[in-house]
From TrEMBL:
Coiled coil: none annotated. Keywords: ATP-binding, Endoplasmic reticulum, Glycoprotein, Nucleotide-binding, Signal. The lineage of its organism: Eukaryota, Metazoa, Chordata, Craniata, Vertebrata. ATP binds at residues 106-113. Belongs to the ClpA/ClpB family. Torsin subfamily. Its main location: endoplasmic reticulum. SUPFAM superfamilies: P-loop containing nucleoside triphosphate hydrolases (SSF52540). This is Torsin. InterPro entries: P-loop_NTPase (IPR027417), TOR1A_C (IPR049337), Torsin (IPR010448), Torsin_1/2 (IPR017378). Residues 276-333 form the Torsin-1A C-terminal domain. It is found in: Endoplasmic reticulum lumen. GO terms for cellular component: endoplasmic reticulum lumen; nuclear envelope.
Length: 337
């Protein structure tokens, strides 16, 4: 990373000039969000000029997704199955009646963003750098309650604009539980069974909502299985569905659940992420070292993973932060070994 500082810095300058020229609205967000976001925006602008909305750049690889979900995603057997089925089924359908809408639920660091990255990677040649991949983070993009009317029209404008550019666009809405309810209402029409809205068809798009809501209920089910001495892999989707729908409906804070998204069956799949255990954290740590181009060191990873915090207090089975923070902790332990 270090030797490339200069290059990255130059790149940011260029990209923010480009951003200014093309997207006055996003300039402030880019300026505020720092170097990583600026670089990402720069790549998107760059892609805008040469990435095209055709099979050269958008070519779903179902084997690739299956392999990634099985090898790179740890401890989430239900997620792997549901996501593969949902995405593959949708992609095979030449004439979908509505866009695909997935809602991913679970505690922190269990892999929700990671899974959306794996989907993008196997759909777009440019993966998450694709100009057709869009991520909205409630607290970063729509922070002020007073601005809601602006956000609403901006969001509708963006979605419509991007889908007009490319019907096979993907939209991630992160931190859904922190999003103001009215905001998600404004995109509801796009998720529905319309042939066309104002001449635009939204039926080939993918919308993915990420949230922590329902996480506690998922944990309860996982804990019950553990206490009954049952294997984690015996947990089935139906064991979690009830818990999930109850908590999701009843959670006052999880914005969009109040709306008719659920009533109107606009969500095609609810995807529950299980809390991760020690052995999954070890897998994450080993994978992280390999990804950094280091020789995976089990002794080191074990050290890091044992120092993480687990719950419930007495049994200490599940990681409080999932696999989050493992990569930064690895760096720290390595430097202070
Ligand atoms: N189940 C998993 N398998 C493999 N890696 C994982 C898994 N869960 C998390 N990770 C690793 O930890 C990192 C953080 O996870 P991620 O950002 O996907 O969590 P999240 O579920 O979105 O959490 P939050 O609710 O806090 O946003 C990922 O980039 C990935 O490297
Ligand atoms: C699809 O993914 C598989 C497994 O990762 C890979 O071997 C194959 O080359 C990919 N196919 C295409 C067309 O990219
Ligand atoms: C597409 O969405 C991005 C946000 O991800 C936005 O900045 C851009 O203006 C949108 N494009 C169009 C053509 O509306
Ligand atoms: C692995 O990590 C341990 C603990 O930090 C360290 O003592 C050991 O030298 C490392 N082994 C290798 C092969 O790097
Ligand atoms: Mg996340």
């Amino acid at each position: 990373m270090r030797p490339t500082y200069k290059i990255i810095f130059g790149y940011i300058l260029i990209s923010s000039v480009l951003v200014k020229a093309f997207e006055p609205i996003t300039t402030t967000i880019v300026a505020g969000a720092g170097a990583a976001a600026a670089a990402a925006a720069g790549r998107k602008i760059y892609n805008y000029f040469y990435e095209s909305c055709d099979s050269k750049w958008i070519d779903f690889n179902s084997t690739g997704l299956e392999v990634d979900l099985n090898r790179k995603l740890f401890g989430q057997h239900i997620v792997s199955r549901v996501v593969l089925k949902a995405i593959t089924g949708f992609m095979k359908n030449k004439n979908p009646k509505k866009p695909l809408v997935l809602s991913l639920h679970g505690g922190t660091g269990t892999g929700k963003n990671f899974v959306s990255q794996l989907i993008a990677k196997n759909l777009y040649k440019k993966g998450t750098d694709s100009g057709f991949f869009h991520q909205f983070v409630a607290t970063a993009h729509f922070p002020h309650q007073s601005q809601i009317e602006n956000y609403k029209s901006q969001l509708q404008h963006w979605i419509k604009g991007n889908i007009t550019n490319c019907p096979q666009s993907m939209f991630i809405f992160d931190e859904m539980d922190k999003m103001q309810p009215g905001l998600i209402d404004s995109i509801k029409p796009y998720l529905d069974y319309y042939e066309k809205l104002d001449g635009v068809s939204y039926r080939q798009a993918i919308f993915i909502f990420l949230s922590n809501s329902g996480g506690e209920n998922i944990v309860e089910v996982a804990l019950d299985f553990w206490k009954a001495g049952k294997d984690r892999e015996e947990i089935e989707l139906k064991d979690l569905e009830m818990a999930l729908s109850l908590s999701v409906f009843n959670n006052k804070n999880s914005g969009f659940w109040h709306t008719s998204l659920i009533d109107k069956n606009l969500v095609d799949f609810f995807v529950p992420f299980l809390p991760l255990e020690y052995k999954h954290l070890v897998q994450c740590g080993m994978a992280e070292m390999a990804a950094q181009g280091l020789k995976p060191n089990h002794t080191l990873v074990d050290q890091v993973v044992r120092d993480m915090t687990y719950f419930p207090k007495s049994e200490k089975i599940f990681s409080v932060k999932g696999c989050k923070t493992i990569s930064s902790k690895l760096d720290f332990y390595r430097e202070h070994a």
